[in-house]
Amino acid sequence: MRHLARPATAQRVTQVRVIGSEWTKLRSLASTVWCLAATVALVVGVGVGYAALRAARPPADPSTFDSAAVSLAGVQLAPFAIGVLGVLFFTGEYATGSIRVSLAAVPARLPMLWGKAVTFGLTTVVLAVPAVAVAFFAGQSVLSAEHLDTGLGEPGVMRAVFGSAWFLTAVGLLGLGLGALLRNTAAGISALFGLLFAPQLVLGMLPESVADTVYRYLPTPAGAALTSTHPDPDTLGPWTGFGLFCLYTAVVLGLAAWQLRRRDV
After folding, report:
1. Which end of the chain is less congested by CB atoms within 10 angstroms, N or C?
2. CA 218, CA 236: separation in Å to the nearest integer?
3. Are 244 and 215 in contact (CB under 8 A)?
4. Other CB atoms within 10 Å distance of the CB of residue 132
5. Sign of the dihedral through C-alpha 99, 103, 109, 114
6. Domain range spanning residue 205?
7. For residues 252 and 173, is the Cβ–Cβ distance under 8 A?
8. Overall number of domains in the chain
9. 88 located within any domain
10. Mind listing the pLDDT tens digit for each residue in 214-262?
11. What is the per-residue pLDDT across 121-147, written as a single tens digit (0 to 9) for each?
12. With helix as H, strand as E and coil as C, how does 11-34 read?
């Protein structure tokens, strides 16, 4: 007597399984390797190169010299690469049409967004921490020739080094949120660069009294305050500024979640 095969039991959709799926998607993207490699190259290459430039032209007053900021100068350019990857991680599925399959596999939708955020955030941290550490130590070795170097034990240095990794992670998640919100690569990248850099240009056309007041609350100056060891009177405190940047990111991700729930695709 023939026995009919029992149908396979459908696997329950869990957040852990969604994260595993998103990790598979991320590492299969060609843009992932290029953008992550560009992020490391900018953080390390620019940091060491700028340190060499400053060592060749020592400051007149070494007491005002921010050695950590010099070796971490590449962190100011790396958002171009990591932010673009964040956008592509979501808009790539809309470009290929695979977003329909993803949403069919995860009907609740929001676990997919949170899965992408967790996957991308962890990937960025794992990459950024060693990148900023290499940039810092390599830059300090260059600056030591002119006795301009500093150590991790100095006030604010460890916070600036590892805070740079957190800043890059937040920028990447901001790009991810914009990609999810706008669903278009060109629009997402334009919005990311506009949000990070355009407000500073606009402030240059406003009265100085207004510009000085508003500047500290802009996304980039607020988030980048965490990466500097010397306090700047024109910016918020390191953790306050970074908290504000995280709030900007959370608002964008919240809007993306709201849109994802209410749209058909």
Report:
1. N
2. 10
3. no
4. 29
5. negative
6. 15-56+65-262
7. no
8. 1
9. yes
10. 888 999 999 988 888 877 777 888 999 999 999 999 999 999 999 988 8
11. 999 999 999 999 999 999 999 988 878
12. CCCCHHHHHHHHHHHHHHCHHHHH
